[in-house]
């Protein structure tokens, strides 16, 4: 083989080797980029999940606050109705007791005032 032929063969081998090295370097770079992209996507998914959980927690806190306020208002309304009913019952009972005491026994009588003393003639009828 002559030197020119050897030189061409050496150049072909060197270019093939350089091409392999470049392709290997590009493959490693692509793999590294792919790993970084996978990591970034997983971080984005974690951050999205954290934001979703935070939003859910805030929503549930607000809902519980609304439920508690509604429960307080309903309790206040029920207590107000109860107190009104109790007051009405007390009024009805007091009127009924007065009426019962008035109709239980009849008190009949007459009185006269004479000079210095009061004469009473009271007759109590129980029916």
UniProtKB/TrEMBL annotation:
InterPro entries referenced in this protein's UniProt entry, alphabetically: IQ_motif_EF-hand-BS, IQCF
Top-level taxon of the source organism: Eukaryota
One Pfam family it belongs to: IQ
Single GO MF descriptor: calmodulin binding
Gene3D superfamilies: 1.20.5.190
Name of the featured protein: IQ motif containing F6
């Amino acid at each position: 083989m002559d030197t020119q032929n050897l030189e061409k063969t050496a150049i072909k081998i060197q270019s093939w080797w350089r091409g392999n090295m470049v392709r290997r370097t590009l493959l490693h770079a692509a793999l590294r980029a792919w790993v970084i992209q996978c990591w970034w996507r997983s971080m984005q998914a974690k951050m999205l999940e954290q934001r979703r959980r935070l939003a859910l927690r805030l929503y549930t806190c607000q809902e519980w606050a609304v439920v508690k306020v509604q429960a307080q208002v309903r309790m206040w309304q029920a207590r107000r109705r109860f107190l009104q009913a109790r007051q009405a019952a007390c009024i009805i009972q007091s009127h009924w007791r007065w009426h019962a005491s008035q109709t239980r026994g009849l008190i009949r009588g007459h009185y006269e005032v004479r000079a210095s003393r009061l004469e009473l003639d009271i007759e109590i009828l129980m029916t």
